[in-house]
Design a protein that fits this description.
about 325 residues; 3 domains; 4 strands; single chain; mainly alpha; two-stranded antiparallel ribbon; two-stranded antiparallel sheet
């Protein structure tokens, strides 16, 4: 059977189902149970369309009702809702076509047959979702709930609530669907709302896990390392090491002090660009700055070159002092 015949059968069955809208669902499903196979046989016998061979879907529905013992078709629905019903029927028709086409990919004639096998898993999941919704409503924001439906942070209450909701969901799932339309619509609406709330909750939980935790930097409360401005590293010979880099046991760099230095000559502050410690080598406490007599007062950045010959020592180094001059004038 080609795709055209399949679409024609699905469309005709949907129209007959719509014409039987006032019939109880159980009776309607019994009337339509073998209809697709019968329509396939009709198409295989002749090249005409189903409407040409069997008549309009409404007329065919009346024949089915007469065969089942009904005198006439049930009352037709209110025409004011025709547009809404047409949209609904269009969506349902598309779902039925997709059901037939996707089924073989899942190893079944229809995808709905595969989904029926997943009903027990859905019952358990539905019970879990109901328990989580109840926990959110009853917890009143006392703390993070987590993956269990905790109320007041109690794991015992969470397990009891989860077990009760799962058992109730399984019991409810094994019961047949209600016959009244409003009850079915209430069930489907509640299920849709539950799924939407679950998607919103899982999306928010995933977003919280992916966010980088905020760590406030600044004053740490007076730790012992707060007063450290710089670090000076020496080797075993007592020689200073420049651009030393320190790491902790986890391999993370140790960041202490700051890179702001003060020029000892001018008192001006500047930013050090050293990659490691010390940031300010001139501030080494073990290298006391001594007066630098080689700096010229007019130009402190130029060294004064000493003369090759040292200055005279002044008075003679001899141990015998010279005679004192006479106080009387010479003649």
């Amino acid at each position: 059977m080609n795709d055209t015949a399949t679409d024609q059968i699905a469309t005709y069955v949907a129209a007959v189902r719509l014409a039987l809208g006032g019939v109880p669902e159980t009776t309607r499903e019994e009337l339509l149970d073998d209809l697709p196979e019968h329509l396939a046989e009709v198409l295989a016998e002749d090249n005409g369309t189903l409407v040409e061979r069997l008549g309009a879907p409404a007329a065919y529905a009346a024949e089915l009702l007469a065969t089942a013992g009904f005198v006439s078709l049930p009352p037709q629905p209110d025409p004011r809702w025709d547009n809404l019903r047409e949209t609904r029927d269009l969506v349902l028709r598309g779902l039925r076509v997709a059901d037939v086409r996707v089924g073989p990919a899942l190893g079944h004639e229809r995808a709905s047959e595969f989904l029926l096998l997943l009903r027990p898993a859905w019952w358990v999941l539905r019970g879990y979702l109901v328990a989580m919704v109840l926990a959110v409503v009853l917890d009143h924001g006392s703390g993070p709930i987590g993956l269990l439906p905790r109320i007041g942070g109690s794991d015992v209450v969470a397990l009891a609530l989860l077990a009760g909701c799962v058992v109730a969901s399984i019991w409810f799932g094994r019961r047949p669907l209600p016959d009244k339309p409003w009850a079915r619509y209430a069930l489907w609406s509640g299920t849709t709302l539950l799924v939407l709330m679950a998607l919103a909750g899982f999306t928010g939980f995933d977003s919280d896990l992916r966010q980088t935790p905020f760590v406030e930097s600044g004053y740490s409360g007076g730790g012992p390392a707060d007063a450290i401005q710089d670090i000076f590293v020496y080797d075993s010979q007592g020689h200073p090491i420049q651009d030393a880099q320190l790491y902790d046991s986890s391999g993370a760099p140790i960041q202490l002090g700051n890179a702001t230095c003060t020029d000892p000559r001018t008192g001006n502050s500047y930013t050090s660009w050293h990659r490691g410690y010390p940031h300010c080598p001139d501030a080494d406490p073990f290298q006391s700055p001594s007066p630098d007599p080689t700096l010229d007062g007019d130009n402190p950045h130029e060294e004064v070159t000493p003369s090759a010959t040292p200055p005279s020592a002044g008075p003679s180094a001899s141990g015998t002092p010279s005679a004192a001059p006479s106080a009387s004038p010479s003649r």
